[in-house]
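Q: What structure does this chain adopt?
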Amino acid sequence: MVIKKFVNDLFKSNTYLIEYYLNKFLVIDPCDNNIFYKYLLDNSIELKYVFLTHEHIDHISGTNYLKKNNPKVKIVCSEYCSKAILDSKKNMSAFYNQNYVSVPANYIVNDFHKLRLLNNLELKLFPFGGHSLGGMFINIANLVFIGDQFIYNTKTVTKLPGGNIFELQRSYEFLKYQFNDETILYPGHGNKFLNKDLKIW
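A:
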């Protein structure tokens, strides 16, 4: 499995491109980024899935571009996220004068869900509130993509609409007890870190 990270200049948010098998790709949290788009074009990459860890503009602003250039790609997110990406106020883009409205999601996750990528590779989806109402953890092998729920050595923002400190605590306990200390966590901003270093502030 090969993971490439692309960082958006404006928001400093992470987009992850994952080659989970030879010439089979998925994206997590596509934020508008010309370097990312050029990489896809230069390498003739066709995407199978786009996963959203939550609904905020700094993690979704590339959905329209990817869908236009990969019409068969499937966008996957939580139920609330699927609604919020269609609303510029709920996805926070209106507050940045962008008024971004995404193409609709193709698959909506209401509860714990498994998606088989290959015969021997399964992806697991866990919807969680905390940072936002539409959050979702994405687990592949010993990796978990956690969006903005937790960022290394940084207090989680819960003051935005839909933020909930009690849901954040619940998700923290879930990560600690569901995954071992060596599980690698990939946040929406900053660098990856180990589950043993996860803290709630």
